[in-house]
Write a structure and sequence with these properties.
By secondary structure, the protein is mainly α. The protein has helices spanning about 1-30, 40-60, 70-100, 120-140, 145-170, 175-185, 195-200, 200-205, 215-245, 250-260, 265-275, 280-310, 315, 320-345, 350-370; strands at about 100, 110, 145, 310-315. The radius of gyration is 20 Å and the shape is globular.
């Protein structure tokens, strides 16, 4: 009964997260409308789609700290990072090769492959690996302190600084023209009040669907965060309950269930960008989300927890440390393989999508074997 309830809660929370991230994305898109390609995906879209990881990790660490909450937070971010790096690019490839890329007349034209800006991959890949190496070093200690969370936050600040530098050196005139064209295509039939309420379309509920202003965008953002917070708290409870029902470590239920649930917004945003022809933003969102997950979704709660409650004892939270070793080295190895797949050759087609899917299911199989069948876990 507990397992069924927890799994049902995971599904419900995933649906709420998926819909609640839409108004967050719309409002954040407006606030970041002048950012150049690749930068918006790595910042605005990445933060919008990674907010569930931050909220879930915070709840697991603060509300469920007596039941390995920190290991659950690490597993959520690590599992989400693997999902983002592997599954999202694969789904983007499948979407554009089978469904197609949206044309100016609204129709879709299939393509054989995606072409990415190598600079965007190298930029985001460098900071992702840097964040992973920092996390690996910190998790090798018996305790985690507040300054380690601050150091992870510092890496994201550095990454954001590089993005700002790139933005200042970008000619935004063409981008503004594209923005004008996009605004012309945004005329859609207004939803009913019931539909807007069920799908969290706060702009229609609060402002009658009028064009965004800075004030209305921030209002919608606040409402979306409130809904996401409730959903992520429910998700946190569900993975803890599933762990107890299955009698497995918390990291197992979070690395699979919570990671997949919190990655739904990343997937939707990236696939949508790919089908709009914004390949760089699609991949930058996935990798940029991973940087945010490690540096902010883990770093910020750890910083706050350390300042409020003190150090986190990794040994007591994670047993003999074998599980966290799997997560940290598995994440690094997966990142290296994914970057190699994306960087080798100019084209990313169906063959590479198959490789990415195989890599992910291999990862899931290993984690499941480690948690369910290996003695002593």
């Amino acid at each position: 009964m507990l397992l069924a309830l927890s799994l049902g809660t995971v599904v419900f929370a995933s649906i709420v997260i998926m819909y609640a991230c839409d108004p967050f994305e719309e409002a954040s898109d407006y606030l970041g409308r002048n950012l150049p390609p690749g930068v918006q995906g790595a910042t605005i879209n990445a933060i919008a789609s990674s907010l569930p990881e931050l909220l879930t990790t915070t709840f697991l660490l603060f509300a469920f700290r007596d039941v390995d909450g920190f290991s659950g937070g690490v597993a959520t971010c690590a599992g989400s990072a693997v999902f983002n790096a592997v599954i999202i690019p694969a789904l983007c490839i499948i979407a554009v090769t089978f469904k197609g890329v949206k044309q100016s007349d609204g129709s879709y034209k299939t393509v054989e492959f995606m072409e990415l800006d190598k600079f965007t991959i190298l930029r985001d890949g460098f900071f992702f690996v840097l964040a992973e190496l920092a996390l690996i070093y910190f998790l090798g200690s018996s305790t985690l302190t507040w300054w380690m969370g601050g150091a992870l936050m510092g890496i994201y600040v550095l990454y954001f600084g590089v993005l700002l530098w790139q933005m200042k050196n970008h000619d935004a005139e063409d981008e503004e023209d594209e923005e004008d064209e996009d605004d012309e295509d945004d005329d859609e039939e207004a939803p009913s009040v019931i539909r807007a309420l069920l799908t969290f379309q706060f702009n229609h509920l609060f402002f009658g669907g009028r064009n965004y202003t800075t004030a209305s965008a921030w209002t919608v953002l606040a409402a979306a965060v409130a809904v996401l917070s409730v959903a992520c708290y429910g998700l946190s409870w569900a993975v803890v309950a599933a762990s107890e029902a299955l009698e497995v470590p918390l990291y197992f239920t979070t690395v699979i269930l919570a990671a997949a649930a919190t990655s739904v917004p990343d997937t939707v945003i990236s696939v949508r960008d790919a089908m709009d022809g914004d390949y760089d933003d699609a991949v930058a969102n996935a990798v940029g989300s991973n940087i945010f997950d490690i540096c902010v979704a883990l770093g910020l709660p750890l910083l706050a927890y350390g300042l409020i409650y003190g150090d986190v004892n990794v040994a007591s939270e994670m047993g003999d440390g074998a599980d966290v070793q799997i997560l940290r080295w598995g994440l690094l190895a997966t990142t290296a393989v994914v970057l190699a797949i994306l960087l080798v050759g100019k084209r990313i087609g169906k063959g590479k999508a198959v490789m990415l899917f195989a890599l992910y299911f291999g990862w899931l199989g290993f984690v499941a074997w480690r948690a369910l069948f290996l003695p002593g876990v």
